[in-house]
Amino acid sequence: MSPISRRHLMLAATGIAAVAAAPRVFAQAASPAAAGPFMLPPLTYPIAALEPHIDAKTMEIHHDRHHQAFITNLNNFAKDNPGIADKPIGDVLGNLAAVPESIRTGVRNNMGGHANHTMFWQIMGPNGGKPEGEVLAAIDRDLGGMEKFQTDFNAAGGRVFGSGWVFVTVDKEGKLAIETRPNQDNPIIDGKRALLGNDVWEHAYYLNYQNRRADYLKAWWNTVSWSKVSERYAAAKAGTLGV
Ligand code: MN3
């Protein structure tokens, strides 16, 4: 091969790689470790992995921009208030009265958003499987079985007025309950833990579903990774579930 054609091939390959990698380059550039102490957790699956239920563009905007904005805001708060980064998130959000009044609402919203979305990315994934073992037993015992659970969860998510979340909380005995929270509040504020939850802010579904939140809530179940939910359930009972 001549040097010219080899160079041409290399340029072509570089160009293809650059185009394919563009969205992720943005995400990585937006979360440099040096800018911490708070960092955007990377997705552990490809950005298009949840299609057709959640499209890649929604995931990109949601993860790389919305979640990143919480991280950026928290890092700005931490410049003058490093204490908010020294403790586990549950300790900060579980005792908001100890946060300086000037940043209390900002910490509640942005750290809540960070906690909620960290959980959200974690409990989704391709080939999510079905609930089994202890989690399935708890769903049967506390939530009336899968069908009633999903119906009740979707109904609760549909009733959230404006922006907020629908969660399944889990206590240290492993007992489950459905609850909703406004804005970016997380059950951790009250010392509880979210086993799983769905984001019903419009940014989570508007590109694909527009105003059809009920359709999104129904389709979202296809994205739940039950093995991750099982890990979180075990961690909650062991008292080691962070957010
Ligand atoms: Mn969101």
For CATH, the homologous superfamily is named as: Iron/manganese superoxide dismutase, C-terminal domain
Tally of separate domains: 1
Query: What does the average pLDDT come to?
Result: 89
Question: Count of DSSP helices?
Answer: 10
For the record, the CATH class is: Alpha Beta
Bound molecules: manganese (III) ion
User: What is the terminal-to-terminal distance?
Assistant: 55 Å
Q: In one word, what is the shape? A: globular
Percent of residues in β-strands: 5-15%
Low-confidence stretches: 1-34
Structure description:
- This protein has 243 residues and is mainly alpha-helical.
- It is built from ten helices and three strands, in the order H-H-H-H-H-H-H-E-E-E-H-H-H.
- A three-stranded antiparallel β-sheet has the order 2-1-3, with helices on both faces.
- The radius of gyration is 20 Å and the shape is globular.
